[in-house]
């Protein structure tokens, strides 16, 4: 540990030379995310998921990726938008027609949500259930024996929230909407974990998948901690999982080829000329 960190603890009356230091493990980063082009535009036109929500990290996460995803991604997205989407906004009536169905669903959901007699702790308990399920099944330990039930429970909660979510005041509405979005996200994330395991995906990166045929990292641990590492021969090392929730309430999975790293030479003069003439925006992969 570096001297500044040691001194920080000492300033708070903790001497790590003699005092035990609690260590906690957390899932800090998500090595995956929404599908995006080289301009950070998703497969939903006009939606630019900038930052770690974009799937630019992949399996590996070098430190520079976080900066690229946030800072460089924002700049490139803004540049692309200014060059490609500079048309006038639709007329008000046309815009209303576009969003009418979505707004009607949102208003209907809101009207059926507020109930002055509702238990005010429901919002908190729902959030805690989502968090607990993700920590238990989608974080550092991903158990093949329990992932199916976790997925089922996640979707069951999502259906319940869709059908009826109760809050006792308008001030709780933002949390209700957030819970609904988080619930869908966590259910779909757990489905991705299940699909990975179904394709014989093994332990890698920041998580362990218990495997009775594997090795124990320490002889003092019980057999639950046996695991195998993913190899370059495995399908999951050669493909990228794309998963989405369709409008027909279906979960669609597709294993696609990894895009190769470009090998063609990149000359400043050529790139600068393409940039000045807006030719770079013709490649929207």
Textual characterization of the structure:
The structure is a single chain. The chain is mainly alpha-helical. The protein has 2 domains: 1-87, no CATH class; 92-285, Fumarate reductase/succinate dehydrogenase flavoprotein-like, C-terminal domain (Methane Monooxygenase Hydroxylase, Chain G, domain 1, Up-down Bundle). The chain is built from 8 helices and 2 strands, in the order H-H-H-H-H-H-H-E-E-H. The protein has a two-stranded antiparallel ribbon with strand order 1-2. The longest helix has 26 residues, at 173-198. The radius of gyration is 24 Å and the shape is globular.
The CATH topology annotation of the largest domain reads as Methane Monooxygenase Hydroxylase, Chain G, domain 1
Uncertain runs are none
State the secondary-structure class: mainly alpha
Strands, count: 2
Please, what is the oligomeric state? single chain
Q: Total domains, how many?
A: 2
CATH class of the largest domain: Mainly Alpha
User: Strands across the major sheet, in which order?
Assistant: 1-2
Largest sheet geometry: 2 strands, antiparallel
- What integer is the average pLDDT? 88
CATH superfamily of the largest domain: Fumarate reductase/succinate dehydrogenase flavoprotein-like, C-terminal domain
Strand content: under 5%
Shape field: globular
User: Topology as H/E string?
Assistant: HHHHHHHEEH
- Assign a percent range to the helix content: 40-55%
Radius of gyration: 24 Å
The CATH architecture of the largest domain comes to Up-down Bundle
Total DSSP helices: 8
Distance between the termini: 43 Å
């Amino acid at each position: 540990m570096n001297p500044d960190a040691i001194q920080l603890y000492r300033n708070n009356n903790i001497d790590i030379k003699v005092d035990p230091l609690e260590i906690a493990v957390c899932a800090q980063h998500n090595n995956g995310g929404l599908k995006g082009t080289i301009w950070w535009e998703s497969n939903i036109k006009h939606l630019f998921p900038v930052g770690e929500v974009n799937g630019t990290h992949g399996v590996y996460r070098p430190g520079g990726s976080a900066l690229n995803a946030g800072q460089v991604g924002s700049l490139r997205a803004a540049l692309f938008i200014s060059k490609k989407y500079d048309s006038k906004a639709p007329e008000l009536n046309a815009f209303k027609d576009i969003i009418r169905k979505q707004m009607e669903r949102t208003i209907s959901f809101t009207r059926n949500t507020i109930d002055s007699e509702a238990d005010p702790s429901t919002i908190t308990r729902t959030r805690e259930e989502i968090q607990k399920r993700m920590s238990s099944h989608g974080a550092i330990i991903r158990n093949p024996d329990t992932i199916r039930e976790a997925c089922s429970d996640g979707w069951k909660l999502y259906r319940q929230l869709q059908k009826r979510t109760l809050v006792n005041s308008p001030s709780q509405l933002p949390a209700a909407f957030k819970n609904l979005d988080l619930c869908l996200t966590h259910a779909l994330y757990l489905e991705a974990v299940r699909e990975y395991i179904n394709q014989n995906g093994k332990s890698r990166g920041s998580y362990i998948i218990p495997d009775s045929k594997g090795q124990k990292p320490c002889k003092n641990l019980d057999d639950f901690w046996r695991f195998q590492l993913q190899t370059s021969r495995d399908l999951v090392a050669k493909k990228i999982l794309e998963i989405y929730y369709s409008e027909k309430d279906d979960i669609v999975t597709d294993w696609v080829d990894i895009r190769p790293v470009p090998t063609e030479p990149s000359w400043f003069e050529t790139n600068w000329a393409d940039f000045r003439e807006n030719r770079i925006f013709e490649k929207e992969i």
